[in-house]
From TrEMBL:
The lineage of its organism: Bacteria, Pseudomonadati, Myxococcota, Myxococcia, Myxococcales. It comes from the Bacteria. This is Arginine N-succinyltransferase. SUPFAM superfamilies: Acyl-CoA N-acyltransferases (Nat). Pfam families: AstA (PF04958). Coiled coil: none annotated. PANTHER family: ARGININE N-SUCCINYLTRANSFERASE, N-SUCCINYLARGININE DIHYDROLASE. InterPro entries: Acyl_CoA_acyltransferase, Arg_succinylTrfase_AstA/AruG. Keywords: Acyltransferase, Arginine metabolism, Transferase.
Length: 342
């Protein structure tokens, strides 16, 4: 039977998800029991469709070590980042060149311009995998990351035509952001941690207090300049994955810490293109002849609403390996979601 399973997050996962949040502690997955409880409630109402407005849905997936009955990873999809009551806020990063013939001097400046979107993209985020599971042969980080693209394809109408991923920049060991200390703190009198938590609940303070227009990054301390658009060591692997499947740096950064924003047209992401719904025509060992495995999923109206495992799937014959079929309770003629990993 599959050793690992991904499923929709449940209210009963609160303690374990809080433990995972301790490893990341970001806006999407804050290390706060109240915030995690709210997130899980929102996820359940999203999976069930109780939240009628699709752009307000947020889906949370958990990766489970079945032998230990332990949650070891998580990831999220935010259906739409940027609405009238909660805009998507970013800094455009613009290169500007200046030349004086009189002095025969040329300068290249980085200019930052704050922007707001009220009809923004779908965001993929909240990716966490416990360190001790990062080198397993099952490539569990890939598993918990890729499953989001399968889910997006299965519910394509619920998501936007653009996908966004915000990556963490280099931060100090204590979580300090040099960009925030050099910029945002002067306009809000909040620490980076305080602003990060508050922005999840309400972003009005940014619109109300941040300067409008553009400003030159060259006026900031060098430590702050150096992190703008840079990827931190903890997310370099994610950057490589995103570039491989079709994402590109959008010349935009997070206004809090300068972390880069990567975007891609939803239907052009290779993982979305390789995902789909299929009908199982046979169950048996013939599927084991395939060299590579797929992410295979089923959905239901009952908790946990969505389940996925790594399994052998022979697309040519429509054959699913028996162990996965038994675990997911799939029979011949049943529909499954499949993302090929070859």
């Amino acid at each position: 039977m599959p050793a690992f399973e991904i499923r929709g997050a449940l209210a009963s996962d609160e303690d374990e998800l809080l433990e995972l949040a301790h490893h990341l502690n970001t806006v999407n997955l804050p290390f706060s029991r109240d915030a995690i409880a709210h997130l899980l409630d929102l996820a359940q109402k999203s999976f069930t469709g109780e939240i009628k407005d699709a752009k307000r849905r947020e889906y949370v997936f958990v990766l489970v070590d079945r032998e230990k009955q332990r949650i070891i990873g998580t990831s999220m999809i935010i259906a739409q980042l940027g609405r009238r009551d909660a805009p998507y806020i970013y800094l455009d990063v613009i290169d500007e060149e200046r030349y004086s013939a009189t002095l025969d001097r040329h300068f290249k400046h980085t200019v930052l311009s704050i922007g707001y979107s009220y009809n923004g993209p779908t965001e993929i985020g909240g990716l966490v995998l416990l360190p001790e599971y990062r080198r397993f042969p099952e490539r569990l980080g890939q598993f918990i990351s890729y499953v989001r693209f399968l889910f997006i394809k299965l519910h394509r109408e619920a998501f936007r035509d653009e996908l966004l991923a915000e990556l963490l920049p280099p931060l100090e060991a204590d979580g300090t952001s040099h960009l925030w200390d050099a910029l945002g703190r002067h306009f809000t009198d909040l620490s980076y941690a305080e602003a990060d938590v508050l922005s999840k609940q309400n972003k009005e303070f940014i619109r109300g207090l941040f300067p409008e227009g553009t400003f030159y990054a060259s006026l900031l301390p060098k430590q702050a300049q150096d992190v703008i658009g840079k990827v931190g060591s903890q997310t370099r692997g994610v950057e490589k994955m995103l570039r491989r499947i079709g994402f590109r740096y959008a010349e935009r950064v997070d206004p809090f810490d300068g972390g880069p924003h990567f975007t891609a047209p939803t239907d052009e992401v290779s993982l979305v293109q390789r995902s789909g719904t299929v009908v199982v025509k046979a169950i048996g060992e013939d599927a084991l002849r395939t060299k590579n495995r797929s992410i295979v999923s089923v959905q239901s109206a009952e908790p946990p609403y969505f389940r996925a495992v790594l399994a052998h799937w022979d697309a040519q014959s429509g054959t699913l390996e028996a162990d996965a079929a038994t675990h997911l309770d799939v029979s011949v003629g049943g529909e499954i979601g499949v993302l090929s990993l070859d």
